[in-house]
Specification:
single chain; alpha+beta; five-stranded antiparallel β-sheet; four-stranded antiparallel β-sheet; elongated
């Protein structure tokens, strides 16, 4: 009985040890390289808005949880200077004003992106100001943190951010 079990164990171990012996087959052809994606990035574009109160409000659809987990990046072109993208927060054309922003839940599915215009001293900027276009990117933090933490991405540079996220002009 003992010899039968011992023989069975030896045969099973031998089968396991030698059953995977052999050379690997030829390597298959390499697949085509995919493009870097931005499936989780939401890119929004808003048209012309003018303010004399120092506040511009943009509405968009997104859950509060998604917005809370994202880096929210805003850029605008002023009607006064259509060739330059200005980051929000940041200084506007000719350093006449600076922008500040925040997101706030409006209802269960709507968020509001507030842009506040203030003087360099921090007072409300109430001179009539027109944003010709505003682009808003909601970027999940995991997509962008590795590059910003190593200093490889300047978030105040619209074109650098757009190219990094592989988004169209």
């Amino acid at each position: 009985m003992f010899r039968t079990r011992l023989l069975a164990v030896i045969l099973m171990l031998s089968a396991l040890m030698f059953s995977c012996a052999g050379e690997d087959g030829a390597t298959g052809p390499a697949g085509t390289a995919g493009t870097d994606g931005n499936a989780n990035v939401i890119a929004l574009e808003f048209g012309t808005q003018t303010t004399t109160s120092g506040t511009i409000i943009y509405e968009f659809t997104a859950s509060q949880g998604f917005v809370d987990s994202c880096l929210v990046l805003g850029y605008f072109k002023s009607s006064a200077v259509l060739t330059t993208w200005y980051p929000i927060p940041g200084v506007g054309p000719d350093a006449n004003f600076q922008t500040r922003s925040y997101c706030q839940r409006y209802d269960a599915t709507t968020q509001r992106y507030y842009v506040k215009l203030v003087t360099m001293a921090g007072d409300p900027y109430t001179t009539s100001t027109t944003f010709a276009v505003l682009k808003l990117y909601l970027v999940p933090a995991s997509v962008i943190i590795p590059e910003t933490s190593r200093g490889l991405l300047n978030l105040s540079d619209y074109n650098a951010v757009r190219e990094y996220l592989n988004l169209p002009e």
